[in-house]
Amino acid sequence: MHRRSILWGTLSALSAAFAASRAQAATEAAPQKLKVVYHLVDLDKVSFVIGNIQNHLDGVGGPGNVTIALVVHGQALKAFHASGANPDLSKRVGQFTRDGIELAACGNTMKSQNITLADLLPGFVSAERGGVVRLAELQSQGYLYLRP
C-alpha cells in the first residue's frame, strides 16, 4: 500500500510540474501584433484622429509593433486634397506612409467630390468598393475598429 501511495504521489507531482511548465510557456509566448483600423468621416475630427494615430504609434513603441489602417470618406476626405492640405497634415501623412500605414480613400466619396488619387496627398490607395466595405473587410481580417 505504501508503494502505491509513493507511485501516485510521484505521478501527481510530475503531472503538476508538466502543467506548470505548459502554463508558463503559454504566458511567455510573444504577444500577437494588434491590427487596428481608424474610421474617419468628420472633417472637424481630422486633426484629432491623426493625433490619435500618432499617439497609438508612440504608445506601442513604433509602427513595428502594430498594424494600422485609416479609412477616410465623406467630408473628411476634403482635408486630404493635396491642393488644400495644411503642411502639418501633409508631413504626418507622409510619415504614416513611410511607417506602412494603409491610407484608404473611399472610392464613392472620390467620385462624389470629382477627384482621383492624384488629387490626394501621396500615399493614399482607393477603396474602390467604398469606405464602409473596406472597413468591413479589415474587420473580417481581425482589425479592431476605432472611430474617435
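The record above closes out task 2.4. Task 2.5 opens with a second protein, given below.
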Amino acid sequence: MRLGLAANKLHHANDNAALFRWLRACEPGIRELGLGLHAVGRTYDAIAAAGMLRGHDGLKRYPYGRDGGLMKLVAEVVGIEGAERTLDGAIYLIDPVDPSSIFPEAVALKRQCVIHGKPFVSTVASARDWIEMERIHAGLAPDRNADVFHALESQTLALIAHDAMKATMLAFAADSFDVLSRYAQRVATGTTGQQLNELAWSRGWPRDTPWVVRYNSGPLGGDAQIADRVLERRCQRVVFFEDPHVARQHEADIQLLERAVTTVTDEAVCITSPAVAKRWIETARLRAAR
C-alpha cells in the first residue's frame, strides 16, 4: 500500500510538530505494514533530518511543492502508468492558516481522493486512526495507544452528508447501526439528522429519544454549529460524505468545519469517503472482538 505524504511547514517546524508526533506514535505500525510513503520534498527532508523511518524502503522523496511534488501526488491518486505510480490515498497534515492548504493542487488532492474513494487524511488523529485501521485488518494485535480512538461510549460523532450523498449516508448508518449506536452522542445537520432519526426509530430506537441531536441545515449554519463543538473538543469524529461534483452554495461553512477539524489536529478524526467509513466500521467490530 502506498500513500502520498505532505505536511505544511508548521507541522514539521520543531521536534514536537504534528508530523513527528504522528511518526512517534505510528512508526512501528508503518514498518509492520510495509507502508509506502511518497513524501513531498520538505516533508521528506524533515523526516530524514529527524532520523525517523531510517532504513524504511517505503519512504520515497518527491519534488518540493513549488516544483510540482503535490501535483504529482494528485496525478498518482488518480493513477498513471500502472500500479507503481498509483497511490492508495494521501496524508496531508494541514495548517488551517497556511495559504498553501487552499492552493489548487491541495484542493485537488482531497477532491480526487474523495472521487476515487480513497482515504484523505488531514489530521494527526486521523492519521493515527488510519494506521490502526490497517493494522487491525492485517491481523495485528490492537495498539493500546490507539484505544482513545475507539472509546466510543464516551465520545460524540458527527454525521453530515450533502444532498446527493444523503442516501449513501442512510445506507451507511443502517449497515453500521450497531457501532454508531455505541457513541455517547451523535449530531447531524438538519435534514440528514431527521432522516437518521427516522431510520433509528424504524430500527426500534425509542421514539421519544432522538438518535441524533439535530443542528441547523448546512446552508443555515449547521456546519458552523458542529465546528464549534469540534473546536471545544466535544466532537471527536466527523463522518462527512461530500459530493465533489456539484457547486456548494455554502462553501465557506463547509470549509469552516474542515478548518475546525484541522485546528484540533490531535483530537479530531475526519472521514470523507464512504469506502473508508465502511472500513472503519469493520475495524471497530474486529477490534471490539479482540
